[in-house]
Specification:
This protein is of the alpha+beta class. The protein has 1 helix and 7 strands.
């Protein structure tokens, strides 16, 4: 299910937003989430050398990268 971002997601470098509030993140196999998943995997493989991704929260227990998303309204169809 596609979700809409609640915050700006910016990967540094280059510091250009890749996702704006209200923009759909796409499906799990989509290019944006694959890119962010690759950054998550890199951060796990090289602890202490994490990427700077503004708007992404890292779960302290597992190191999962979390993005705040808007919940669809009741009855709203999502892609």
């Amino acid at each position: 299910m596609a979700r809409s971002a609640a915050a700006v997601i910016t990967v540094t470098p280059p510091g250009i937003p890749v996702l704006m509030p209200g923009e759909h993140a796409g499906g799990p196999g989509g290019p944006l989430l694959r890119y962010l998943s690759a950054l998550e995997e890199r951060d796990r493989r090289f602890p202490g050398f994490g990427s700077e991704t503004h708007g992404v929260r890292v779960a302290p227990d597992m190191g999962d990268h979390l993005i705040e998303c808007l919940r669809p309204a009741p009855g709203e169809k999502t892609a």
